[in-house]
Automatic annotation (TrEMBL):
InterPro entries: ABC_trans_aux (IPR005586). Gene3D superfamilies: ABC-type transport auxiliary lipoprotein component (3.40.50.10610). It comes from Stutzerimonas stutzeri (Pseudomonas stutzeri). This is ABC-type transport auxiliary lipoprotein component domain-containing protein. The lineage of its organism: Bacteria, Pseudomonadati, Pseudomonadota, Gammaproteobacteria, Pseudomonadales. Pfam families: ABC_trans_aux (PF03886). Residues 26-184 form the ABC-type transport auxiliary lipoprotein component domain. Signal peptide: none annotated.
Length: 229
């Protein structure tokens, strides 16, 4: 009997060890964006290449520790899917909404797509921790239709959070949305040349119509003389 009890206890412990907690998985939030209407005159934007730092090219959702190092979350939290793809889609939707265009493609673009602007982006940091705010460090470069660089900028953005993993992901999403807003503001001046300028045609004042000429009345002369008595 004692041997049977021991076997049952061992079996219970083994089963308990096999039960694992579900792994929490998270996705970025694209924000409250509206899909722009299809417009033939919308600016054509080519997004990419979009490069991520090496430590962001993994499924694990790393945490920034108090000493500044990075480590996996204790609950083994992961990104639900490809982080690179999520970032690309967030940026695409944000830029389409802010620039009011549907003419956007990811690099290298489809055959026949002729962009007015190309945005090259490199994200070197995107992380947070229970005691660290969410931080985004990135650099973008803008190229015109001829491939000539029109501008570049280094940015470092920061967003506070409540400490939970869900709120950390929210804060990181907000940072990417703010990055999209800044890039859209930099792209807009390059679209002015594409927008046709409506010119008001000023008509020259019409010449006043001269009244019809009335021939002068000339007295009729005769050779007769009138005598009065």
């Amino acid at each position: 009997m004692q041997r049977l009890t021991t076997v049952l206890l061992f079996a219970c412990v083994s089963l308990a060890g096999c039960v694992t907690q579900p792994v929490p998985m998270y996705r970025l939030d694209n924000g409250a964006v509206e899909t722009p209407a299809q417009a033939a005159d919308g600016v054509a934007v080519l997004l990419g290449p979009v490069r991520l730092a090496d430590y962001l090219q993994h499924d694990a959702l790393l945490q920034r520790l108090p000493d500044g190092s990075l480590a996996a979350d204790g609950q083994q939290a992961r990104w639900a899917g490809d982080l690179q793809g999520d970032i690309n889609q967030l940026l695409m939707r944000q830029l389409a909404w802010r620039l009011n265009t549907q003419s956007l493609e990811l690099s290298p673009g489809s055959k026949g797509f002729s962009p007015d602007v190309q945005v090259e982006l490199e994200i070197t940091r995107l992380d947070s921790g229970p005691q660290h705010p969410a931080v985004l460090e990135a650099q973008w470069r803008l190229l015109d239709k001829q491939g000539k660089r029109q501008g570049s900028r280094l940015v470092r953005l920061q967003e506070e959070h409540q400490g939970s993993m869900a709120d950390q992901v929210r804060a990181q999403s907000v940072l990417l949305q703010r990055l999209s807003e800044m890039m859209a503001a930099a792209i807009e001046p390059m679209t002015v040349a594409k927008t046709p300028v409506k010119r008001n045609v000023v008509k020259a004042p019409s010449k006043p119509v001269a009244p019809p000429a009335i021939p002068a009345v000339e007295p009729i002369r005769t050779d007769l003389e009138v005598f009065r008595f």
